[in-house]
Protein: Cytosolic Fe-S cluster assembling factor cfd1
Amino acid sequence: MPHDNVRNIVLVLSGKGGVGKSSITTQLALTLSLQGHSVGVLDIDLTGPSIPRFFGIEDAKVRQAPGGWIPVPVHDAQVLPSQKSTSQSATPEGPQHQKIGELSCMSLGFILANRKDAVIWRGPKKTAMVRQFLTDVLWPPLDFLLIDTPPGTSDEHISLLETLLKQVNLPTAPPNQLAGAVVVTTPQAISISDVKKELNFCKKTGVRVLGVVENMAGFVCPNCSQCTNVFSKGGGEIMAREFEVPFLGSVPIDPAFVGLIEEGTRPVYPEGTVVEGKPIGEGRAESGEVSELLVDKYRDCSLAPLFDGFVKRLVDEIGTRNNA
Structure:
């Protein structure tokens, strides 16, 4: 089966559209790769497949192989130039380079003849497409497969869980392969009320919630060192406490991250910029070494230290369960 060599499957869910699931999925994938894990991203948001755009690989096409599709590579496992502020460089021997894991993606966006075509499908066709994505993609050996889902709890989600549960219960599947879900919300009450339905969906279907991420919980000003909570903050944490699930943290809006995704520009911040108590912008490459890879540019983003902490907690949580 295609998932036999996938150690952990993590769903990214939300009951609300527009909360930034694809953005969160992208940053989780980049951070996992930076921590040395091999990662795959499966985009099952069939009517709005945005993962190809986030990773800058919109013009790529999947290849057919005996037995299924070969996912599109984002980058191979390799070594990045060292950074002054990274923990990898803090050794008595001096700066060290950073090893990253390979990253690949699969999305309906790679299959459509025209990127601008609207996907106007009834439920049965969407269900069949989701099942095909789960059974016919020939992933390389992966530490983590992240599945970016559409909003709600409808056809795609039911098909996703039915197919996944059949696969993860096969004798050849790794133990506890379906690790759980990361649930994304924004701080506003209207978003919280919808996302609570997603948490109830997880509870009823037996999907473990690995953590809640509160997205758009502030704004990093590109002209000064301030991060302002323009959309309030704390609603996601209160919801997580109510449902007794882990709260991973809050993520502000960063125009530099938008520039990285939209234009491919490396994030740059004014001197003294601080996000969540951490100084940003000190991670310049040693000896002038630079890389044009998205994952290398992301290391200079203000959000990278936040997600580094999120992912470490996720990996620890999954490891604790697998060792139980």
DSSP finds nine helices and 15 strands in the chain.
